[in-house]
Amino acid sequence: MTLLRDEDLTAAFDHAARGYDTLVAANPGYHAHLRRSVRRLGLPGSGAGLRLLDLGCGTGASTAALRAVLPAARITAVDASAGMLRRAATKPWAGGVTFVRAPAERLAEAGVTGPFDAVFAAYLLRNVSDPDAVLTAVRDLLVPGGRLGVHEYTLSGRRVDRAVWSVVCRGLVQPAASALGDGGLYRHLWRSVVEFDTVDRFAARVRAAGFEHVRALPLPGWQTGITHTFVARRAESGR
Question: Membrane spanning segments where (predicted)?
Fold first, then answer.
């Protein structure tokens, strides 16, 4: 199959929204790993006075991670899928969280403007048609010195990690998703990861977009070598 992009991918996420939380709950450490990635941003205290952008929020798992770690921050949570956002809206949120429907490539058209103190993007950038353009736009939304956190499937480059990813997807994830009628999206999931950047290549992509102090940090458990947190900062003086 070819990778899903743009409207086709959004439609697939719309359809999958009803069962999405059930599937991710079966992934050991999914929510704890998101919270770990948020903590790695190194933002101060409870987030009081900070403005955060949750880019590609889906049903709100990454939003919940931001809220858990930084409960006093103001969060703008954005996703292109109306179905995913409807699921997110059914959950209990304290004040300070705003959901906006917009593709990552067209934030300004939806009224999403900076400056933000930090941008967090979970499982997003391998799904966009032009990740370099999105990273550049994100950089421009940040205050000088603002933080970027990317939580993403990025293989280490070792054959064993690619093999583990394929076994998990084909043996566990895809059969469960197919039973829900969402096999196409999760076949895309497998392929989008094996065709995306390795961890070193993605770190270089982030640097090329004008970020400094780029670090790639592994996550524990079965996802070691498969999922990483990338943390970086916009240059204090801009690019």
Answer: none
* Cα–Cα distance, 34 to 155 (Å, whole number): 17
Kindly provide the b/e burial profile for residues 150-178, where b requires at least 16 CB atoms within 10 angstroms of the residue's own CB.
Answer: bbbbbbbeeeebbebbeebbeeebbeebe
Q: Which helix (H) or strand (E) holds 223?
A: none
Chain centre distance of CA 120: 7
Reference 73, options 107, 109, 111, 44; nearest CA is 44
Convert the pLDDT of each residue in 112-152 to its tens digit: 999 999 999 999 999 999 999 999 999 999 999 999 999 99
Which amino acid appears at position 98 of this protein? T
Are the C-beta atoms of residues 233 and 149 closer than 8 Å to each other? no
Q: What is the CATH number of the domain that holds 108?
A: 3.40.50.150
Please check whether residue 52 is in contact with residue 76, taking contact to mean a CB–CB distance below 8 angstroms. yes
Count of the separate structural domains present in the chain: 1
Number of H helices, E strands in the chain: 9, 7
Helix axes 183-194, 159-168, angle to 10 degrees: 180
Spans of the chain below 70 pLDDT: 1, 238-239
Distance CA 124, CA 126 (A): 6
Of 204, 198, 201, 206, the closest CA to residue 227 belongs to 198
Asked whether residue 1 is assigned to any structural domain, the reply reads no
Token representation of residue 77: 């949570």
Residue type for position 110: A
